[in-house]
Design brief:
By secondary structure, this protein is an alpha+beta fold. It is 46% helix and 15% strand. It has two domains: 121 residues, no CATH class; 146 residues, no CATH class. The strands form two sheets. Strands 1, 3, 4, 5, 6, 7 and 8 form a seven-stranded antiparallel beta sheet that branches. The chain has a two-stranded antiparallel ribbon with strand order 2-9. α2 packs across α7, α6 packs antiparallel against α9 and α8 runs antiparallel to α9. The longest helix has 26 residues. The protein is globular. It starts with 5 loop residues before the first strand and ends in an 11-residue tail after the last helix.
Length: 336
């Protein structure tokens, strides 16, 4: 049996439009024939669109700091019916090199099977090939449209302190109503969980993320470029939610009302951001004179999303929820 020394998967094209994890997941799944449909449907069904996190100083990394990635990504991919395995940890740990060695082999095995992998660059990207002779992986970040190269020796090493890689398996079919209902429950969990990376409380999630955003904008002590990225990512995700709910609103009674609320939320935020950001390309920053009105509109958006989540809670309560209402005899966490 000959050993493959170079593999490049065709049909992989990551494009940055959503959260970077969603963009990477969509590229991997569509190329593998495991998901059909627009990206906003994947973002909605996985619950990724609903995740909202904000650092108290509005730093750039807020957008991907929505929790422990394995715990955050796993339920969403499960809701798509996809089998998945992930590796990750801290590159400073003494065992990192051994984890790195095993992860490198796992990535190559996945690529040999024709499945690209999700990889923290940062942000998230896609590994779509390798060259054994040059000892490199081929990686897309979704921004440039081109390919970057990561040496095997540098796998998992970046300017953050952590590494992450995820592999995709096969799929089972989940009825659409069940998947939509679970996506709403995932959204409600995100909304009601204020901190996802305890004991650190400098980053808030869900409802509290709005308060962090408003507080930073009012105080004026915040990272301006980070604020722009947070707000543009937020608007992109709320647009995805609106389009997702528009597509599935007939699946569950009462979902049309939730869609209407998100449509109103997207409209007011889009108008306000158009006024708050200069049209000229380049170093985009929030206009200081627009901050008071921006804070008022963000407050209005928070109240609208609270209304939407109240309706989601009503819809959820009309159906049994075995995942959350029945605990195994060993407690809330299953054995692994």
């Amino acid at each position: 049996m000959s050993v493959r020394t170079r593999v490049i998967l065709e049909g992989i094209q990551m494009k940055r439009e959503s959260k970077s994890f969603t963009d990477a997941l969509y590229a991997v799944l569509t190329a593998a024939g495991l998901f059909q449909g627009p990206k906003f449907m994947l973002s909605g069904l996985s619950g990724m669109a609903f995740k909202f996190s904000v650092h108290e100083k509005l730093y750039f990394h807020s957008v991907t700091a929505y929790g422990q990635w394995g715990q955050e990504h796993g339920p969403g991919i499960d809701n798509l019916g996809i089998y998945t395995v992930y590796d990750g940890g801290r590159s400073r740990h003494e065992s990192f090199r051994e984890y790195q060695r095993i992860a490198i082999e796992s990535v190559k095995q996945s690529l040999d099977r024709g499945r690209a992998c999700i990889y923290w660059i940062p942000e998230f990207g896609v590994i779509h090939g390798y060259d054994e002779e040059d000892q490199v992986f081929y990686v897309q970040d979704g921004k440039s449209g081109g390919t970057e190269y990561v040496l095997y020796d540098n796998f998992g090493i970046n300017f953050t302190s952590f590494w992450y890689c995820q592999y995709i398996g096969d799929k089972v079919d989940i009825p659409l109503q069940d998947a939509v209902l679970e996506s709403l429950r995932l959204a409600l969990e995100d909304w009601e969980t204020p901190y996802k990376i305890l004991p650190d409380q400098s980053i808030a999630s869900g409802r509290l993320a709005y308060s962090f955003l408003i507080g930073a904008l009012q105080q004026g002590d915040f990272d301006n470029s980070g604020a722009v990225y947070i707000l543009e990512s937020y608007l992109s995700s709320r647009s995805e939610i609106r389009r997702y709910l528009e597509e599935v609103q007939s699946v569950l009674p009462g979902l049309g009302e939730v869609h209407g609320i998100y449509a109103q939320l997207e409209k007011i935020m889009r108008l306000q951001l158009a006024a708050s950001l200069p049209v000229a390309p380049g170093n985009r920053v929030l206009l200081p004179e627009q901050l008071p009105s921006l804070c008022a509109v963000v407050q209005q958006a928070m109240e609208l999303e609270e209304q939407a989540m109240q309706q989601v809670r009503v819809i959820s309560g009309q159906y049994p929820d075995l995942k959350r209402s029945i605990l195994p005899r060993w407690g809330a966490h299953t054995a692994r």
